[in-house]
Amino acid sequence: MTSDRVHKTVMNAKVGFIFYFVSILLAFFSRSIFLKCLGDEFMGLAGTLYSILNFLNISEIGIGTCIAYFLYKPIADQDHEKICEIVSLFGYLYRIIGTIILSGGIIVSAFFPLIFADQGVSLSIVYFAFYSFLGSHLIAYFINYRQILLDSDQKTYKISIWTQTGGAITTIIQIALAYYYHNPYLWAAVQFIFSVFTCWMLNWVISREYPWLKTNKNRGREILKKYPEVLVKAKQIFIHRLKNFFLSKSDEILIFAFESLQMVAYYGNYVMIVGKLTALFNSVLVGMNASIGNLVAEGNKWNIRKVFWEYLTFRYWITGIFIIGLAFLINPVIAWWVGPQYILADHLVFLILLNMYIMLTRPAVDLFINAYGLYDDVWAAYAEGIINLTITLIVGYFYGLVGILLGKIISMLLLVVIWKPYFLYKRGFKESIGNYWLGVFKHYLIILASLALCYALPHLLQWQAEPTISSILLSALCITLPVIVVFSILLYLFVPGAKDLAHRIPFCKKTN
């Protein structure tokens, strides 16, 4: 079971990693073609319509995560009857959510003549594009709901292969049509047509993978009576996700309110770099949710603890590498990319990187909390939101971006860094949290020592990275790479889980 779980995790990581770079290349190239051939107005319209759909999609928050939790145990036990019931229940709940989104979309579209008045686009393309996007979106709710089983069974790579390939083909065809015909109707139609085709192919894969999977959404109400805890946990998850949704989407609005549109642009450059690195990290670990859920469902406490420290160490190691690299190189990269006038003050860069460090390391605890189904600390979501908002409004009013970042960081330090590990150890692991803090403080000391070395080394060598690609690459090789090596060695020698993690690497396994 363990080797199978590792194999699936590696496959998920490989596929996610490959398609991450494919999507980046296509997005970079297609964006310029679409802007040139379809116009700024239509691309702005498309972005606005997608934002409206994302807002409507808030009604889903929690259901998928909740159902995945209830699938881990029957998948581990190969209980096909129970799996069929839970997937049927998921289809029933998704049908309700899809109906809500469809109704909300129809209501919102009634106001399009007011929303898009004097925007330079015809209402016919507004409605055609919106309902094309809405139709593509609703497929997941009314037809594609069975893919939750692939995801929970650690086979996310099979979903990615078809959905990402379909998305890549769609983009390529849209590029060709936009270039030759300059027709936004064709662009939107292709989006819907290939969504239908991808849906058909994915369902074919699911039927071949699980020929025994028989679902009946009409039995959803009956099945729900057997699993009343589904709605209880879904409501708990909803509160946590809703908090994350609003806090993560409010930065630009708050910066605009307390600073200026110019500062929004400055901050956006840093966020884009951090966001791309975060997406790269997540693409590698895309399948870990189901793997950890499957591990916890097996109930081997020794193995759960061992994997916990391996996973925690891996996240802290990769995050540390990103932070060390960005600490010395992000400003030269910004200067080379968009110009030196866009560089933020050092204290703002520090706060951005500290926020990134917490955000990238928090899943080490969060994923195990999810695997244990521990969502009932809804007070923590309210507390984090209230603390964040209070600090942001008070300090942000006087100090702008500093206050906004401090609001995020302080609220996460209290609730994410301190409370969540305690909650996991008390309710999940059911043991003292002392060993956790001993191990994590070693990570904190090592990253601080490494950052100190990263800042001291250029001064000792009288080295300054210039905003040129050659200087940036040379600085990465001569400054950040040696620091990363020292950082990695210190982790291997002193933190729990590092040696177990290293032994998973083939050449380390042979030499130890």
How would you sum up this structure, described in words?
With 512 residues, this protein is mainly α. 84% of the residues lie in helices and 0% in strands. It contains 23 helices and no strands. It has helices at residues 2-38, 40-56, 63-77, 80-109, 112-115, 123-142, 147-152, 156-181, 184-209, 220-226, 229-249, 251-258, 261-284, 288-298, 301-337, 346-361, 363-371, 378-399, 401-429, 434-461, 469-494, 498-502, 506-511. Helix 13 (261-284) runs parallel beside helix 16. It is globular and about 65 Å long.
Count of helical regions:
23
The total of beta strands comes to 0
Unreliable segments of 5+ consecutive residues: 507-512
Give a short account of the largest sheet: none
By secondary-structure content and strand pairing, the structural class works out as mainly alpha
Radius of gyration: 24 Å
Order of helices and strands: HHHHHHHHHHHHHHHHHHHHHHH
The residue-averaged pLDDT reads 81
Shape: globular
Beta-strand portion reads under 5%
What's the N-to-C terminus distance? 24 Å
Percent of residues in helices comes to over 70%
